[in-house]
């Protein structure tokens, strides 16, 4: 029974991994950085104006994932609005965040978004050898259906995102990661897969503690 249970867990794990559209491409940790408990983290998303839904969704998903590790995380959209830091100097922005009690800043950016068209033929079956050797009229009908059955196009959207984690004091980069997401289907799926990939890697690399 234990053997079958172990096998079932392994199969489920593979299935879960396969369903994750996001793939961690690379990550970097500041040499000598050690994990410690962050009390409050500000999550800032950066996307184009047309992708506001993605920005808010990614911010919320990452904040939620951080909260699962006992870190109080707040999204910049809810705390300050979308453009609070745009007209501030570096010093003014850093002071505002520090004065508001944040000891960590997670900056998320949508670096690239592209669409791909993929053609799927209407019929992809191969003609059995027995049919080829049989009557030409039968072979004609099989090949006719294969050639003239209309195919169709599907469009997939792929994303490239980056996550950078800073300590508020001394305002230094601790961690950076790049993630690609392949046709997640929705902003919610993209956000969930991205946040899991990044936060799990941060824990693995020793930047966050459970």
Characterization of this structure:
The structure is a single chain. The chain has 210 residues and is of the alpha/beta class. Strands 1-6-5-4-2-3 form a six-stranded mixed β-sheet. It is elongated and about 85 Å long. The model is unreliable at 1-18 (pLDDT under 50). The protein has helices at 2-19, 52-68, 76-79, 90-99, 129-133, 136-148, 187-204; strands at 22-29, 40-46, 72-75, 104-120, 152-167, 172-182. The longest helix has 18 residues, at 2-19. It folds into two domains: 20-113 and 158-204, Double Stranded RNA Binding Domain (2-Layer Sandwich); 119-152, no CATH class.
**CATH architecture assignment name of the largest domain:** 2-Layer Sandwich
- Structural class of the helix and strand makeup? alpha/beta
Q: Could you tell me the CATH topology label of the largest domain.
A: Double Stranded RNA Binding Domain
The proportion of strand residues reads 25-35%
Q: What is the radius of gyration?
A: 24 Å
The count of DSSP E runs of length 2 or more, i.e. the number of strands, is 6
- The chain-level mean pLDDT equals 80
Shape estimate: elongated
In short:
With 210 residues, the chain is an alpha/beta fold.
Key structural traits:
210 residues, Double Stranded RNA Binding Domain, six-stranded mixed sheet, 6 strands, 30% strand, elongated, disordered N terminus
